[in-house]
Amino acid sequence: MRWIDASKTTPLSTPSFEWAIAYATVDVPLNAQLAAWSARAKSGLVAGCTSSGGVFSPAGFTRGLHLLVADEDDAIRASAVLKSCTSATARRSAKDACEQIARELGAVPSMLLLHATPGYEERILEGIADAFGDSVPPAYGGSAADNDLSGKWKVFLGAKAESEGFVIVGFHSAEPASGGFVAGYLPTNQRGVVTRAQGRVVFEIDGKPAANVYNQWCGGALDRHVGRNAIVLAETTLAPIGRLIDRHKGTPRYLLSHPHETREDGALTFFTEFAKGDEVMLMMGTTESLLERTTQVVHRAKGLRTDPIRGAVLIYCGGCVLAIGDRTREVAKLYEAAIGSTPFVGAATFGEIGMLPGAGVTNRHGNLMCDTVLFR
Q1: Co-location of 177 and 212 in the same domain
Q2: Per-residue pLDDT reduced to its tens digit, 209-230
Q3: Over the stretch 155-201, which tens digit does the pLDDT of each residue have?
Q4: Would you say 140 and 353 are in contact if contact means Cβ atoms under 8 Å apart?
Q5: Contact, 29 vs 65, CB < 8 A?
Q6: What's the whole-model pTM score?
Q7: What is the dihedral of CA 72, 78, 79, 80, to 10 degrees?
Q8: How far apart, in Å, are the Cα atoms of 94 and each of 109, 149, 230?
Q9: CB of 3 closer than 8 Å to CB of 57
């Protein structure tokens, strides 16, 4: 596999390739670039999404378009589907997309890479589960992003890009890709139970207004926002809400949710869905823990496998990029060291997708997290 920096390499000067995963910042003229690069792919498959602030690669965290391309001797087959959809149609669209991918591959994919526009990632995961039933493959990826939450994000395949929808890529090879999904935050003793929720709005925790409870847990960090409609992303990035999913080999695994907005009615909104009865807790992170998890996610993906890594994809939360600031370039360096100087690309996303192994495969959507795919 090869990494290509499109700002330094032209399509016509690049040998053709089988397929590519690509990420770009929103300032890139996508239509022209995608048309040129997909013409170099024998399958026409150049799939990916826009990234917040920069793209991860061996060059660090830089703007522009970057590609991870697979050649014929990599022996990794890929099939992808891009869909325009809404929340109401996402589940069915995802099911149809996965069935098409399975038909084109002639088998159930061993791994899926999913990029959606923010808002209804859970519906897409439900559609994936509908398509594969008990044989659902692990899915990794993240939600398309822009620089300021203004909706300039895109998902794309070939020369076509969508501002509302998703792209799913399925892979099949003799040596399946492996993935990892980690939080990088630690739980506190502040915890409770969701007693009223609807979708991504939590109204009550332990029978009390959710924003008030969260503010108390944080020692009054949201004092000036509670009781009014206010965006609180910056104040909550290092203090998300967590849910204990399970314990794997004695290690607890948490799914994170980023508090987004306080409301006049005392509710707290998030970028993931909650249900009545969810056990929740305050999580805490630091700049150091957010850097360290870059290595941790590779170790999680490697497991006990020792076969060489041909290429890799890194997905890292865009909110965490804002939190660690200038140290974001260290993420790329740590990741490259962990995978052994292998070609890679990565996106800063507004939501992360991953599989937490346990009793069956369960693909989940979280916030402020990190995931990776390692191609073998």
Answers
A1: no
A2: 999 999 999 999 999 999 999 9
A3: 999 999 999 999 999 999 999 999 999 999 999 999 999 999 999 99
A4: yes
A5: no
A6: 0.94
A7: -110
A8: 14, 24, 33
A9: yes
Identity at 233, one-letter amino acid code: L
Whether 277 and 305 map to the same domain: the answer is no
**Is there a single domain that holds both residue 56 and residue 140?**
yes
Amino acid (one-letter) located at 198: Q
Burial pattern 279-304, b for ≥16 Cβ within 10 A else e, equals ebbbbebeeeebbebbbbbbebbbee
Together in a domain, 240 and 160: no
Same domain, yes or no, for 228 and 173? no
Order of strands across the sheet that contains 155-157 = 2-5, 65-70, 17-24, 41-50, 155-157, 160-162
Number of domains in the chain: 2
Q: Which amino acid is at 192?
A: G
∠ CA 296-302-305, nearest 5°, is 150
Distances (CA, A) of 230 to 91, 94, 196: 31, 33, 20
Helices (H), 285-326: 287-302, 318-324
Final residue in a domain of this structure, among 233, 267, 284: 284
134 residue type, one letter: D
The enclosing H or E element of 196 equals strand 186-198
Which residues, in sequence order, are CB contacts of 81 under 8 Å at separation 6+?
96, 97, 98, 100, 101, 157, 167, 168
Q: What is the largest CA-CA distance in the chain?
A: 63
| Tokens encoding 347 | 């996106």
Where among 252, 269, 284 does a domain terminate?
Answer: 284
Q: Which residues pair with 226 in a beta bridge?
A: none
CB atoms within 10 A of CB 60: 15
Do both 257 and 315 map to the same domain?
Answer: no
Together in a domain, 272 and 300:
no
Residues 6+ away with beta carbon under 8 Å from 356: 181, 245, 246, 248, 253, 255, 362, 364
Q: What would the mean pLDDT of 255-282 be, rounded to a whole number? A: 96
Q: Rounded to the nearest 5 degrees, what angle is found at the Cα of 355, between the Cα atoms of 20 and 68?
A: 15
Asked if 173 and 220 sit in the same domain, the reply is no
DSSP class of residue 11? G
Q: Could you list the residue range(s) of the whole structural domain that residue 245 is in?
A: 186-284
